[in-house]
Design goal:
binds zinc ion; 9-stranded antiparallel beta sheet; alpha+beta; two-stranded antiparallel sheet; HIT family, subunit A
């Protein structure tokens, strides 16, 4: 069982999940636990010889019932590829799977916040290369969504709605838009190539989205990952998180709010150089960046155009 301890100086919960030390670490393709179980082959986590999208409980959970949840979402039964290379319908189906998990986990008493995310690349600690993401159900409201709720309070309305209006008015940092979804490098990005993907309409969660919005959200996410891969002509590492409305009562004084958006935090600042979180970031909480968001947006727009040509 994992254990939660409250860190007084930081006012934050730390989860101790000691058993995670025994996790499978970068197995060879023939021993991938996320591949289908093929006739005569080794038994994997998925007891079928083919599948579309698979969800199961993480065998090495950071959180588990009755104190939260940890699930694995396998995007495809093909060992190779990424979110970007899935057929469009498969990426769209993934949005429906996310929505279903948000509803199921969010309905549980012990889950106060559902975080859907993907870590991609060894640079962000990936231990399995098979295209997949994860879902954590936290038994408390974590600090980042708390800050986003506080931003709604400070701006006296939905913060993502206000920020999106501003980005559309300025235009320089927008890298992709379709009828329902906009992607931009935020005005005050922490990471050199940080991108936020925001629904145009105020949608608290995936549950509030129309089918057409889910379809175009998937298309946008695929375009962003293609642009990333084209940027330095290599698979681009990132952390991708889905922020939505909390699924439990929020702390006193804060009304429940939230606006579905997806944030990408890529650790690369050049083709070879990683951004490390060091003295200022860790000790003071202040990010120092050597790239202006406007410049990154230009590079990403160009990369997106190159990726579209190659397709
Ligand atoms: Zn695999
Ligand atoms: Zn909004
Ligand atoms: Zn957010």
């Amino acid at each position: 069982m994992s254990e939660l301890r409250f860190n007084e100086l930081r006012a934050e919960q730390i989860a101790y999940a000691i058993h995670r030390q025994e996790r499978t670490f970068l197995p060879s393709a023939g021993r991938c636990p996320l591949c289908p179980t093929r006739p005569g082959g080794p038994e994997t986590e998925i007891p079928f010889d083919r599948f579309e999208i698979a969800v199961f409980d993480n065998r090495f959970p950071a959180f588990e019932q009755p104190l939260g949840a940890a699930e694995v979402v396998v995007y495809t039964d093909s060992h190779e590829g990424s979110l970007a290379t899935l057929p469009a319908e498969q990426a769209e189906a993934l949005m429906w799977v996310w929505r279903h998990r948000y509803r199921e986990l969010g309905a549980r008493e012990d889950v106060h916040y559902v975080l859907i995310f993907e870590n991609r690349g060894v640079e962000v600690g990936v231990t399995l290369h098979h295209p997949h993401g994860q879902i954590y159900g936290y038994p408390f409201l974590p600090p980042v969504p708390q800050l986003e709720l506080a931003a709604d309070q400070r701006l006296q309305g939905c913060a993502p709605c206000a920020l999106l209006r501003e980005e559309l008015a300025v235009g320089r940092r927008v890298i992709y838009e379709n009828e329902h979804v906009v992607a931009y490098v935020p005005y005050a990005a922490r990471w050199a190539y940080e991108v936020h993907v925001v629904l145009r309409e105020h949608r608290p969660s995936l549950l509030a989205c129309e089918p057409a919005e889910l379809e175009l959200l998937a298309a946008c996410l695929q375009s962003i990952v293609r642009a990333y891969d084209a940027l330095f002509d290599r698979p681009f590492p990132y952390v991708m998180v889905v922020h939505q409305q909390p699924t439990a009562p929020t702390p006193s004084g804060l009304p429940p709010s939230g606006h579905l958006h997806i944030e990408f935090y890529p650790p690369l600042r050049t083709a070879e150089k990683l951004k490390y979180l060091a003295g200022s970031e860790q000790g003071a909480g202040t990010f120092i960046s050597d790239t202006l968001p406007e410049r990154s947006a230009t590079s990403l727009r160009e990369a997106l155009a190159r990726a579209a040509e190659q397709a």
